[in-house]
Amino acid sequence: MLTDLQNGSRAALARAITLVESTRADHRAAARDLLAALPEPERPTVRIGISGVPGAGKSTLVEMLGTRLTAAGHRVGVLAVDPSSARTGGSVLGDKTRMPRLAVDPDAYIRPSPTAGTLGGVARATAQTVPVLEAAGFDVVLVETVGVGQSETHVAAMVDTFLLLALARSGDQLQGIKKGVLELADVVAINKADGDRATEARAAARELAGALRLTARGMDEVWTPRVVTCSGLTGDGVDELWATVTAHAAALGPERIRQRRAQQRWALAQALVRDELEDRYRRSPQVLAVRDDVRRDVLDGVLSASAAADALLGAFDAT
């Protein structure tokens, strides 16, 4: 599979990502072997996370940016994470339908993935899929998240540049003042800055840039988050947006990017440990033996939640 992957086989790429996303024990073991065998990319790669409130135009902007990049000679991989149903676990996985031009571009690859219940809308396997795309020759990887709050934290931990989309006249410029968001955003783009909305978008960008200068002071000695305006629909400002992203990468430099990615690998290792422990907990015979009784006692008011947790963890520790 690795040889086919490096030779540009899209079928091999699809199989490799499916293997990485699978929760089957044998697939997870095979995925670990595959990931361990992946070589370093032949040319520098760019990892960009894109988040924002629903309706901010993430998919439209991703398609416009992606087609511009492939026309310039880049190969673009898109990981689009769709929310899963809390009841059935199903996902629509309809991101390709929102990117019709990019979906048929031979130098692009779009992979919709379900969140599978992962907090914040970033699938567990997304971070592992990024190096698979890079091994297949994609030098720009865009991770588009659901945009439901906590996803910003998750995607920022797996990319080089975190891009936050906002809209004028939606309160987003005020929302951006929240320190938690500003600490994550490397670039903020006021999207849908076209037609009659262009003036409002520029005003919103000035307000948000002022907030950034105040709250981001001292956060990073080499880069202050920048605000640009753009339109994913018309393409206005998209070239400037890409120039800002590349300026951020240049400001970081190869060594700091290398350090970031090392931290990302460690964060992924911790996440995989948590996933494995949760899986072992669910399958533990000792836990299964007492879980129904503990649940009944909690529902009947006989046992407190903390005592129930102690009982379940005690059963798990005895595994």
TrEMBL record:
Keyword Hydrolase appears in the UniProt entry: yes
EC number in record: 3.6.5.-
SMART domains with a match to the protein in the record: AAA
AAA+ ATPase domain span: 44-181
MF annotations from Gene Ontology: GTP binding; GTPase activity
GO cellular component: cytoplasm
Keywords annotated in UniProt: Hydrolase
InterPro entries to which the protein is assigned, alphabetical: AAA+_ATPase, GTPase_ArgK, P-loop_NTPase
Family: Belongs to the SIMIBI class G3E GTPase family. ArgK/MeaB subfamily.
Name the record gives this protein: Methylmalonyl Co-A mutase-associated GTPase MeaB
Organism: Nakamurella flava
Gene symbol of the encoding locus: meaB
